[in-house]
Structures are given as structure tokens and as C-alpha cells.
Amino acid sequence: MTNPQTARLLPWTTPDGKTCIVVGDGDGCVSRMADGMEAVQLDMAEDLLGHAADMLGDRKATFPELHYLASQLTGSLRDVRRVAESRGARLPRRGDGHRMTGFLQVSTATENRAEAVALAQSLVSARLAAGAQIAGPVASVFRHEGECGTGEEWQLLLKIRADRYDEVEAHLLAHHPWRKPEVTAVPMVAGAKEYLHWVETATARE
User: Fold this and answer.
1) Burial classification of residue 161, based on how many CB atoms lie within 10 Å of its CB (0-12 exposed, 13-18 middle, 19 or more buried)
2) How does DSSP classify residue 98?
3) How confident is the model over 131-162, as pLDDT tens digits?
4) Chain-centre distance for alpha carbon 197
5) Strands (E), the chain
6) How many contiguous H segments (helices) and E segments (strands) does the chain have?
7) Cβ-count burial of 80 within 10 angstroms (0-12 exposed, 13-18 middle, 19+ buried)?
8) Residue 107, CB half-sphere, CA atoms under 13 Å: how many?
């Protein structure tokens, strides 16, 4: 199955003005033709910028000349922007080939359900987490003070914005009943658009 991350915008449109996109490995005939057209467009943009610099330095340039220059620069800028968008979409992405979304799932654990609920409520109320899931009791096997131990814990999973992780960590460390609690985070490498929009809006600063 073709990898959708190789999709690219083409430097032409349909007769009715719709965008054209090709999906493939980037080595096909259409992709090579598009590469050639993009190279020409970028060279033309560079030449046009040089011409613009000369004209703007000429005090005798007339309004019609400047108007024509502006129209040509507009079209060239449109081409360059499309090239940038197309190439940017094809750049390698972090996270084993998946896109990074800018959101994290933070995990911690407590001794009982009430403590987990209290932590979740404090984070959601502060708009540091969009939501929380509490599961338990779960069996826990650990090493503590040189000895192996077992017990039961309640796991707390929080949905947060990556740019607010430091605030979330500080809040957990300040309000957690344990002296050295687990506070770990993993990235959401992908997610449903509407769900991620909810996480973003629910954790926006007021």
C-alpha cells in the first residue's frame, strides 16, 4: 500500500482550478516532471527578486511598471509557497514515520482511587489536562530501597498539550501524596482531528 506521507502538491491545476496531488515514492515520471517545473519556478522567482531590487532602487520607475512588478511577484510568491508546502509535507517526520501532534499522554499512579480522582479533578479544573482516565486497582511490582515489593495502585492517564508539560509535572509533584511519584509522558503521534481539537481547546489558557 502506498505510504500517504509521500503525497505532494503538483505545480499545475485542473482546468477548473482544482489542486492536483500525486501519491507515490517520488521517483515516478509525474514526480520527476513536477521537480523540473518547480526548479524552473524557483529560478524564475530568484530572477524576479533581482529585477525587483533593481526597479525599487530606480527613482524613475513609473506606477504602471511597479504595478506590473507587484503582479508578477504575487504570482511568483504563490508558486514558491506551494513548493514550500509540498516539500514540507514530504519531509521525514519524527516518531517512527508518524506525525507528531503536539499532545502528550501523562501517566502517574496513586495508592487509592480517591487520590487519583482528586489529582485528576485538580488538573482538569486548572485546564492543565483536557481529561483523565483512571484504572485500577492494578498489580504493581517494584524495587524500593534495595528490596523488591508488590502492591496495588490506581493508574491515572492525562491528556495534555505538550507545551504545558512543565506545568503539569510541577502540579503533580506539588499535589501528589507520594514523595517521589511516577510522572512520565509519551507523545500522541497521531489522533482524530476533532479529538485533538478538543484537547487543545480544553487546555487553552484563559
Assistant:
1) buried
2) S
3) 999 998 999 888 877 888 898 999 999 999 98
4) 12
5) 8-13, 19-22, 103-110, 131-144, 147-161, 184-187
6) 5, 6
7) middle
8) 9
Cell of 12: 499545475
- 104: its cell numbers: 502528550
User: By three-state DSSP, how is residue 203 classified?
Assistant: coil
Residue in the block written with cell 514540507: 88
* Whether the predicted model's global pTM rises above the 0.70 cut: no
C-alpha cell at 38: 518547480
Count how many residues are written for the chain: 206
- Where b means 16+ CB within 10 Å and e means fewer, 86-109 reads beeeeeeeeeeeeeebebbbbebb
Number of Cβ atoms within 10 Å of the Cβ of 123: 25
C-alpha cell at 135: 484504572
Do 172 and 127 touch, CB atoms closer than 8 A? no
Continuous segment of H or E residues that includes residue 205: none
Q: pLDDT tens digits, residue range 94-122?
A: 444 445 568 999 999 999 999 999 999 99
